[in-house]
């Protein structure tokens, strides 16, 4: 997949790279959830029918972050993660547009004239709730009007699950409240993060459960504190494990930032400095403070046994 960075308005040099017939899906696509996948699927179907590339236009930073909504400083799929997922889905091109103060003030008309028309798009695909231009003044209907027959516009209806519209906001809410299975169902895959293994305090090894301490590589949304059954990918290998995401209240008072500590089953390699991808498969329990280290160790054994059973059954 080709990945290009763009800014508004498109420059002459950028025009040479992007000016060719293509089907273009536009959106934030944070999470690349089932609703987003419907938009992407339509773009790919149209592109295949027309024998032209299927492209995605997304924005960085998240527009809501620029508008001052602090929770969007963390994302379900930061740029590199989003790129990996889109490539896996078979997208031909990904355009990451710099969302800055200038673009924020652009009218819908100017966005079309100075961004879409120079790209020679054949068809633009958007979700039913797509907005663009200053203060979100542009809607799918606006886009259809501004196209003036110069490109086709297709609007994808909301994708629902159990009567609720699938959205990035709903996925976030489920992750933050410990409803991991529901979040994963909306994503169509386990929620995952990427990080580098760093040196911890070594306490896990002393109590019989050595852990890999993860420093996240990108600003991922951090799920609810607690214990998870996970799968870890490392250099093409996949290992089952159990992860504690929390503030270690049994040992530390008022730890400000939660840590991610994963114990991998049947694993003894030295992976300090290596990158791990962690899939959150199941939420086992909330984090809690234990009265003694022996109580904690006993619970860790139960957590590990539960995670092993669950992950083994899923792989059958």
UniProtKB/TrEMBL annotation:
The keyword Cell cycle does not apply. One of its GO terms (molecular function) is FMN adenylyltransferase activity. It is an enzyme of class 2 (transferase). GO terms for biological process: FAD biosynthetic process; FMN biosynthetic process; riboflavin biosynthetic process. Transmembrane segments: none annotated. Pathway: Cofactor biosynthesis; FMN biosynthesis; FMN from riboflavin (ATP route): step 1/1; Cofactor biosynthesis; FAD biosynthesis; FAD from FMN: step 1/1. It catalyses: FMN + ATP + H(+) = FAD + diphosphate; riboflavin + ATP = FMN + ADP + H(+). SUPFAM superfamilies: Nucleotidylyl transferase, Riboflavin kinase-like. The keyword Nucleotide-binding applies. Keywords: ATP-binding, FAD, Flavoprotein, FMN, Kinase, Multifunctional enzyme, Nucleotide-binding, Nucleotidyltransferase, Transferase. Residues 186-312 form the Riboflavin kinase domain. CDD domains: FAD_synthetase_N (cd02064). Its EC number is 2.7.1.26, 2.7.7.2. Pfam families: FAD_syn (PF06574), Flavokinase (PF01687). Belongs to the ribF family. Catalyzes the phosphorylation of riboflavin to FMN followed by the adenylation of FMN to FAD. NCBIfam families: PRK05627.1-3, PRK05627.1-5, ribF. This is Riboflavin biosynthesis protein. It comes from Paenibacillus rigui. The lineage of its organism: Bacteria, Bacillati, Bacillota, Bacilli, Bacillales.
